[in-house]
Amino acid sequence: MAPSAMPASGDHTGATPHVVLLPSAGMGHLVPFARLAVALSEGHGCDVSFAAVLPTVSSAESRHLRALFAAAPAVRRLDFRLAPFDESQFPGADPFFLRFEALRRSAPLLGPLLDAAQASALVTDIVLASVVLPVAKARGVPCYVLFTSSAAMLSLCAYFPAHLDANAAAGGGRLGVGDVDIPGVYRIPKSSVPQALHDPKHLFTQQFVANGRGLVAADGILVNTFDAFEPDAITALRQGSVVSDFPPVFAVGPLQPVRFQVAEKPAHYMRWLSAQPARSVVYVSFGSRKAISTDQLRELAAGLEASGQRFLWVVKSTVVDRDDAADLADLLGDGFLERVQGRAFVTKGWVEQEEILQHGSVGLFISHCGWNSVTEAAAFGVPVLAWPRFGDQRVNAAVVARGGLGAWEERWTWDGEKGLVTGEEVAEKINAVVGNDVVARKAARVGDAAAAAAGKGGTSYQSLADFVGRCRDAGW
């Protein structure tokens, strides 16, 4: 509904805080916000309003919003329509980075929405932090940030502006980014720093640095992780080792999947999974955000075929799903689908990843290490073979390896680096990890720790309860 039709939530003298959530673009941001909305509404008794940013970039986002409001009718919808934005000033920019910028420039429009909602607190996305925080503060609304990646990546985001400042002072700005030694955490090597951040003029770099500097003004930071998985980064952030006077950090993950309405019949891929032996299937997905080149897709196909393993592969060939019209057979090479028929299920369609990862036939997840994928694998104790492609994903892959969730072949290339990972390398690595009892036991322990954290009385459950308490006591 429009903000003007939004029912008031009362004068906030009662026990029910009203939390407004404002996500940004992309499934990697939308999914954790949807999960937080349901956790606050159903698990912690909050009055929740959810800003649906319109228009969406992808079809997947539109579907997810419809499914969220159908599955959680207590979560109220706020339509947030963006101001006109001339994208031509950023030729060739990533469509999701452009949407981040359009959202940032539309931040002043948030004021009337907050006034109508009479919110106890606003939770906004990290990519909007530096522009939304002042709008909320001007209206006396406590503003929190949901960081949609790892605590390790949060520590990089918080420390990166100081790192740039130190480099500029030491070398007049000529030193570049280099390795980043985060106090109290660990070194992020130059090769793992998101590609865009190596270019100070890049649109994303400008957004990232502004948000990093702005974080100290937040009333708190929520992170979709848990203490036992990232103890070093969480402790360093809370103790002020990364940035002094840092806001409170609430580790609230892994946020649980929304229980969407169940289809009358299981999806084709789920029926196929149910016919496979326990822990025998390699699930392959590189997320909703980036495409892999055709040459690398074909090497991956060759590796999956040569491994001899059963596999379920979700193929993505374009950045935005609405643009994807390529034929699978053309993408993957003549005869591939026929040769793997029976032991493989290959699709370009949308899948419910949580359903797949909790299925007993899945024994390995080849993942780009988008943070939603990592937390889902952690929640279900599924071993991960990390193959990061861009952005925060090498930082997250290091968390996977450090945390015992799986393995990362650091030599494998990502976007912008020369060379392909060959099919032979892929097959060899898959067969080294599949069925490895040590790897499986470690991942299962991560799953147990995730369940303990998210369960009642666990560290993440209590952290979210503490956040709700702050919203309730915000002075209304």
UniProtKB/TrEMBL annotation:
DNA damage as UniProt keyword: no
Similarity remark: Belongs to the UDP-glycosyltransferase family.
EC code(s) of this entry: 2.4.1.-
CDD domains: GT1_Gtf-like
GO molecular function, one term: UDP-glucosyltransferase activity
Keyword flag Heme: no
EC supergroup of this enzyme: transferase
Name of the protein in question: Glycosyltransferase
Keywords: Glycosyltransferase, Transferase
InterPro entries: UDP-glycosyltransf_plant, UDP_glucos_trans, UDP_glycos_trans_CS
